[in-house]
Amino acid sequence: NAEFVSEVEEIKRLIPIVKQLVATFPMINLSVDTFRANVAKEAVEHGVAIVNDISAGVLDEKMLETVANLKVPYIMMHMKGTPQNMQGLTDYKDLIKDVVYYFSERIHAARNHGISDLIIDPGFGFAKTLDENYEIIRNFEMLHLLEKPIMVGVSRKSMIYTKLKLEADQALNGTTVLNTFLFSKKPAIFRVHDVQEMNEIRTLINSCL
Fold first, then answer.
1. Residues noted as catalytic
2. What span, in angstroms and rounded, lies between the C-alpha atoms of 88 and 119?
3. Total-model pTM
4. How far apart are CA 54 and CA 122, in angstroms?
């Protein structure tokens, strides 16, 4: 239910931080989370390396063309509607089939614009009920049919603390459990808040293989 900020305000908030991070850490790989083409362009021109779009190019018709011209990797997420109304759009005839079809269509559109470096994100918590989030985890292998790297982001989300009847600041243990389970599903990227804990998961699991 977050309110949209204007494109001008988004750029005003974002670009000074990007400039400072790039100046302080010249080798940093930054990802910009935006559904606006102009914001993505400004960010990449100031040193951002990846565009992460929750709408997969649906909310801004210029996004795919812009990313293609920028020649950077593009993360596209599954969502219906907008962040303002998505939680009222959780009715699916067949959730997994719908998600796979959605990505097939968006991947095709991206390729038609000349984007080849694509990553998909199933969008946990976006236009999905609590149980639907876990349905995606149970059927995660189906996403590999798309033959694209997959990014997962369950870190500290309400799907964890609501399920466990906890407060948001108590979600670390649940996050660790889900990320450990997801590790076996072979996503390419984990989007996390707790980097050390995720690295410990990776180290310990790899030591057992």
1. 157, 191
2. 26
3. 0.94
4. 10
